[in-house]
Amino acid sequence: MPKLRSALEDAGFEDVATYVQSGNVVLSSGDSAAKVARAVEQLIKKEFGVEIPVVVRTRAQLARVVRRNPLGRVANDPKRYQVSFLEKQPSAAVVRKLEGLAAPSERIAAHGRELYAWHPEGVARSKLWAALAGKGLGVTATARNWTTVTKLLELADR
Predict the structure, then answer these.
(1) Section 142-153 average pLDDT
(2) Over the Cα atoms of the chain, what is R_g?
(3) Does domain 70-146 have CATH number 3.30.70?
(4) 21 to 4, 13, 36, 93, 124: CA distances (angstroms)
(5) Which residues pair with 82 in a beta bridge?
(6) Three-class SS state of 55
(7) CB-neighbour burial class of residue 152 (10 A; exposed 0-12, middle 13-18, buried 19+)
(8) pLDDT number for residue 134
């Protein structure tokens, strides 16, 4: 993460901060989220030789994700409460499929380009989590637990 942070700063991004070792980055840019995503993808490919899709949310968008918190009344363990950030909104058919995969104790809520998922028994044997983490969504996605989501917003507010 220090090398990534340094590469982003060298590329002209400002206020660069990283959180844990999973590619969580907060930065400032005057460019659109889409332009930042493409620039970061190209930088990672050039600097590290890895092709990975990048999903970006603005500070305001991330704040709305946290404020919305549709499963907050039932999700009482932030490590088992996940938000999947998608490049674009999933189709209604994909959302119905995910709802059908949820175990009786699990919950899922789709809101625009985010999927909120509550896994009270963990993700190890969850069919819902397997579908969220796999390629079956039909769009580029990345998931973070609620602890990470709120920490990223905290970093963005510095």
Answers:
(1) 95
(2) 16
(3) yes
(4) 11, 19, 20, 33, 21
(5) 117, 145
(6) coil
(7) buried
(8) 78
Q: Give the type of residue at 82.
A: Q
pTM (predicted TM-score): 0.93
Q: What angle do CA 43, 49, 50 make, to 5 degrees?
A: 85
Run of H or E including 24: strand 24-28
Residue 123 has pLDDT above 80, yes or no: yes
DSSP, res 16: E
pLDDT digits (tens, 9 = 90+) for 94-104: 999 999 999 99
What residue type is assigned to position 138 of the chain? Answer: G
> Which pair of tokens denotes residue 6?
């340094």
The chain-wide mean pLDDT, for the chain, equals 94
Query: How many Å apart are CA 24 and CA 22, to the nearest integer?
Result: 6
Q: What pLDDT does residue 1 have?
A: 80
Q: Using the predicted structure, report yes or no on whether residue 109 has a pLDDT greater than 80.
A: yes
- Residue count (the chain): 158
**Which residue shows structure tokens 């968008």?**
61
- Out of 3.40.462.10, 3.30.420.100, 3.10.150.10, 3.30.70.1280, the CATH code matching 2-48 is 3.30.70.1280
